[in-house]
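Entry:
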Amino acid sequence: MKRFSIILTVAMAVLAAGCSKDNPTTPAVDDNHVQFKATLLPANEVAPNIVTGPEAAASGVATIDFTLVKDAAGAITSGTVNFRVDVTGFPAGSAITLSHIHTGAAGVSGGVLVNALVAAGEITLVNGAATYSRLNIAMTAAQAQQIVNNPAGYYFNVHTTNFPQGVMRGQLVKQ
Protein backbone atom coordinates (compact mmCIF):
# COMPACT_ATOMS: atom_id res chain seq x y z
CA MET A 1 0.00 0.00 0.00
CA LYS A 2 2.90 2.34 0.83
CA ARG A 3 4.35 1.71 -2.65
CA PHE A 4 1.01 2.63 -4.26
CA SER A 5 0.92 5.89 -2.26
CA ILE A 6 4.40 6.84 -3.47
CA ILE A 7 3.47 6.12 -7.09
CA LEU A 8 0.25 8.10 -6.72
CA THR A 9 2.13 11.04 -5.16
CA VAL A 10 4.70 11.07 -7.98
CA ALA A 11 1.95 10.88 -10.61
CA MET A 12 0.09 13.79 -9.02
CA ALA A 13 3.29 15.88 -8.92
CA VAL A 14 3.95 15.22 -12.61
CA LEU A 15 0.35 16.10 -13.47
CA ALA A 16 0.51 19.32 -11.43
CA ALA A 17 3.76 20.32 -13.12
CA GLY A 18 2.22 19.68 -16.52
CA CYS A 19 -0.71 21.98 -15.70
CA SER A 20 1.46 24.80 -14.43
CA LYS A 21 1.20 28.18 -16.17
CA ASP A 22 4.99 28.23 -16.31
CA ASN A 23 5.21 25.05 -18.37
CA PRO A 24 7.90 25.78 -20.99
CA THR A 25 6.21 23.50 -23.55
CA THR A 26 3.15 25.77 -23.68
CA PRO A 27 3.63 28.36 -26.43
CA ALA A 28 3.36 32.00 -25.41
CA VAL A 29 0.47 34.01 -26.78
CA ASP A 30 1.63 36.50 -29.40
CA ASP A 31 -0.85 39.35 -29.65
CA ASN A 32 0.75 40.53 -32.89
CA HIS A 33 -0.68 37.51 -34.71
CA VAL A 34 -4.40 36.89 -34.99
CA GLN A 35 -6.11 34.11 -36.92
CA PHE A 36 -9.68 33.99 -38.21
CA LYS A 37 -11.63 31.24 -39.97
CA ALA A 38 -14.71 31.52 -42.12
CA THR A 39 -16.87 28.56 -43.09
CA LEU A 40 -17.90 29.31 -46.67
CA LEU A 41 -21.38 28.25 -47.81
CA PRO A 42 -23.65 29.38 -50.65
CA ALA A 43 -26.54 29.36 -48.16
CA ASN A 44 -24.84 32.25 -46.32
CA GLU A 45 -25.28 34.57 -49.31
CA VAL A 46 -28.10 37.10 -48.95
CA ALA A 47 -30.78 38.40 -51.30
CA PRO A 48 -30.75 39.32 -54.07
CA ASN A 49 -27.76 37.00 -54.49
CA ILE A 50 -29.38 33.67 -53.65
CA VAL A 51 -27.20 30.87 -55.05
CA THR A 52 -29.05 28.18 -56.99
CA GLY A 53 -28.13 25.40 -59.38
CA PRO A 54 -25.03 23.20 -59.25
CA GLU A 55 -22.82 25.81 -57.51
CA ALA A 56 -25.17 25.72 -54.51
CA ALA A 57 -23.44 22.45 -53.50
CA ALA A 58 -20.01 24.10 -53.14
CA SER A 59 -18.39 24.81 -49.78
CA GLY A 60 -15.09 25.92 -48.33
CA VAL A 61 -13.00 27.33 -45.53
CA ALA A 62 -10.95 30.51 -45.46
CA THR A 63 -8.11 30.80 -42.96
CA ILE A 64 -7.03 34.39 -42.51
CA ASP A 65 -3.88 35.32 -40.57
CA PHE A 66 -3.10 38.87 -39.51
CA THR A 67 0.39 40.01 -38.58
CA LEU A 68 -0.03 43.30 -36.75
CA VAL A 69 2.46 46.11 -36.27
CA LYS A 70 1.97 47.98 -33.00
CA ASP A 71 3.51 51.08 -31.47
CA ALA A 72 5.04 51.26 -27.99
CA ALA A 73 1.59 51.87 -26.48
CA GLY A 74 0.20 48.72 -28.13
CA ALA A 75 -1.93 50.50 -30.73
CA ILE A 76 -2.15 48.85 -34.16
CA THR A 77 -0.31 50.98 -36.72
CA SER A 78 -0.52 48.65 -39.75
CA GLY A 79 -0.45 45.00 -40.66
CA THR A 80 -0.37 42.32 -43.29
CA VAL A 81 -2.80 39.53 -44.01
CA ASN A 82 -2.33 36.02 -45.38
CA PHE A 83 -5.28 34.22 -46.94
CA ARG A 84 -5.57 30.46 -47.44
CA VAL A 85 -8.80 29.37 -49.10
CA ASP A 86 -9.94 25.78 -49.64
CA VAL A 87 -13.06 25.26 -51.79
CA THR A 88 -14.76 22.14 -53.10
CA GLY A 89 -17.96 20.90 -54.69
CA PHE A 90 -17.99 23.13 -57.75
CA PRO A 91 -19.40 21.74 -61.00
CA ALA A 92 -17.36 21.58 -64.19
CA GLY A 93 -17.08 24.97 -65.85
CA SER A 94 -17.14 27.05 -62.64
CA ALA A 95 -14.53 29.79 -62.43
CA ILE A 96 -13.53 31.76 -59.33
CA THR A 97 -13.16 35.44 -60.15
CA LEU A 98 -12.66 37.29 -56.83
CA SER A 99 -12.38 36.85 -53.06
CA HIS A 100 -12.08 39.29 -50.18
CA ILE A 101 -13.23 40.43 -46.73
CA HIS A 102 -16.43 42.48 -46.71
CA THR A 103 -17.98 44.66 -44.03
CA GLY A 104 -21.26 43.14 -42.85
CA ALA A 105 -22.77 41.04 -40.08
CA ALA A 106 -24.45 37.72 -40.88
CA GLY A 107 -27.32 38.31 -43.32
CA VAL A 108 -26.09 41.81 -44.27
CA SER A 109 -24.21 42.71 -47.45
CA GLY A 110 -21.43 45.26 -47.34
CA GLY A 111 -18.54 46.69 -49.25
CA VAL A 112 -15.10 45.17 -49.72
CA LEU A 113 -12.71 46.04 -46.88
CA VAL A 114 -9.61 43.88 -47.61
CA ASN A 115 -9.05 42.44 -51.08
CA ALA A 116 -7.41 38.99 -51.38
CA LEU A 117 -6.09 40.05 -54.79
CA VAL A 118 -7.60 37.21 -56.81
CA ALA A 119 -8.16 37.95 -60.48
CA ALA A 120 -10.48 36.17 -62.87
CA GLY A 121 -8.77 33.14 -64.41
CA GLU A 122 -6.06 32.82 -61.73
CA ILE A 123 -7.64 30.00 -59.73
CA THR A 124 -7.89 26.61 -61.42
CA LEU A 125 -10.52 24.24 -60.10
CA VAL A 126 -9.48 20.58 -60.41
CA ASN A 127 -12.38 18.16 -60.03
CA GLY A 128 -14.40 21.04 -58.57
CA ALA A 129 -11.84 21.94 -55.89
CA ALA A 130 -9.00 24.37 -55.31
CA THR A 131 -6.68 25.64 -52.62
CA TYR A 132 -5.15 29.05 -53.03
CA SER A 133 -3.16 31.47 -50.92
CA ARG A 134 -2.41 35.14 -51.05
CA LEU A 135 0.38 36.32 -48.77
CA ASN A 136 1.61 39.55 -47.17
CA ILE A 137 -1.17 41.82 -48.36
CA ALA A 138 -0.88 45.22 -46.67
CA MET A 139 -3.66 46.50 -44.41
CA THR A 140 -4.16 49.89 -42.85
CA ALA A 141 -4.37 50.32 -39.09
CA ALA A 142 -8.09 51.10 -39.43
CA GLN A 143 -8.82 47.92 -41.42
CA ALA A 144 -6.95 45.74 -38.95
CA GLN A 145 -8.49 47.39 -35.86
CA GLN A 146 -12.03 47.11 -37.20
CA ILE A 147 -11.74 43.40 -37.90
CA VAL A 148 -9.79 42.48 -34.75
CA ASN A 149 -12.27 44.38 -32.56
CA ASN A 150 -15.40 42.91 -34.18
CA PRO A 151 -14.72 39.88 -36.41
CA ALA A 152 -18.42 38.90 -36.50
CA GLY A 153 -19.08 42.17 -38.34
CA TYR A 154 -17.08 40.96 -41.34
CA TYR A 155 -17.33 38.12 -43.82
CA PHE A 156 -15.12 36.46 -46.41
CA ASN A 157 -16.69 36.08 -49.83
CA VAL A 158 -15.79 34.06 -52.95
CA HIS A 159 -17.18 35.08 -56.34
CA THR A 160 -17.58 33.08 -59.56
CA THR A 161 -18.46 33.85 -63.14
CA ASN A 162 -21.99 32.48 -62.54
CA PHE A 163 -22.41 34.46 -59.30
CA PRO A 164 -20.45 37.71 -59.69
CA GLN A 165 -21.96 39.11 -56.46
CA GLY A 166 -20.70 36.08 -54.49
CA VAL A 167 -21.18 32.33 -54.56
CA MET A 168 -20.29 31.59 -50.91
CA ARG A 169 -19.54 33.51 -47.78
CA GLY A 170 -18.76 33.01 -44.12
CA GLN A 171 -18.47 35.27 -41.09
CA LEU A 172 -15.03 35.68 -39.58
CA VAL A 173 -14.47 33.80 -36.33
CA LYS A 174 -11.40 34.59 -34.23
CA GLN A 175 -9.41 31.47 -33.40
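Confidence is low (pLDDT under 50) at residues 4-28.
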